[in-house]
């Protein structure tokens, strides 16, 4: 059979490549932000904040490209769902990159002091989130529904860790009010990681939408 | 195969059609809902136009056509009743190219009613105006009803054709690629008109333009090699088709 939409397929591949590039940069930003937080490396944190522009620019580029593809190719069925899912996923990735920036900013505010990271589950949340992101993006690229479902299950782990961390920080705060500055930032980071996992779950939902053709609510 | 949930205006069951030895339709069964737009899509030669023409027995005019199965319109099997004239009054048709007669706009629209024996001038005037209004062309032609219909633009001619069909007070209007010869703006005007017409008529439209099918129709049937592969609400057919062959066709991956 002759493929009469070779050019369109090439464009769809380009769209996906751009998304992969954006995702790789976001993963790297996230890893750097968390390393900076863990090691109190303010310089590294500032770099993460600086480099976010590249991700934002890619976000705009992908959006424009997707809109143009819709206009010129009037896609239907899987093609349409793929482009819509790409748009949604890109905006989730962009939000995740913003959370990396937020963590970097919190790191700068904490500065160099005795780290209280050990009273939290933030490291675990970070680890699980990165694993979720890998699975969610793979679910989209490979059309793997099992991965999409696994992401939803992992989100529960992050949610529980969030609740635990919230509790331990507020308890610690009562006995150590002199640590308020750092503890407040830790509370924020706790929140950022929890929101990050939610956005990753959205990515898995978009993947499920592409695969199954219906809206899935995995955020429950 | 998903059948209609609404009222079936036309019910087709196990329809087979042969042009001589060659079979063009295979066991086609589908219900067409009343006052809805049903689009028939599929590649050239898939049988969609053949199917459309069975609905008012236009295929009777072709030598060597054999038909089996049932087509029931308003509880009457149209191949068992002999009155083809009455059938074609009830089931009107608009073709790919505007096919107006070389006479005035007025006479074109009045042609059918006159042939039915309506002579009264006032009554004819009323039918002509109502039909032209119904076809959203009245304002453009009301001052030149007596001039030749062939002087109109293609898009206007096609809407006069629709007016001519409406003048017979049909229940069903069949449209065989009604905009394929029109420019984009005229096409959109006809599509707007279709949206208006479905309040009063059951419309079945054959189109090669998939965006058009998606825009104008409530339900879509995908034909391939004389069979109905998928028949569902239009939204499903275009955003999440069930059959891989439908998917390949609507996404243009079809050879």
Provide an overview of this structure:
The complex is a heterodimer of chains A (220) and B (255). Chain A has helices at 6-39, 42-73, 77-110, 122-142, 145-175, 180-212. Chain A has 220 residues and is mainly α. Chain A has a single domain (6-212), classed as Methane Monooxygenase Hydroxylase, Chain G, domain 1. The N and C termini of chain A lie far apart (44 Å). Chain B has a domain at 8-100 and 170-250: Rossmann fold. Chain B has 10 helices and 10 strands. In chain B, the strands form 2 sheets. Chain B has a 6-stranded mixed β-sheet with strand order 6-7-8-3-9-10, sandwiched between helices. A 4-stranded antiparallel β-sheet of chain B has the order 2-1-4-5, covered by helices on one side. In chain B, a hairpin with a 2-residue loop joins β4 (65-73) and β5 (76-77). Chain B is globular. The mean pLDDT of chain B is 93. Classes of the chains: A mainly alpha (220), B alpha/beta (255). The A-B interface holds A 1-5, 8, 74-81, 213-214 and B 210-211, 214, 238-241, 246-247, 250-255.
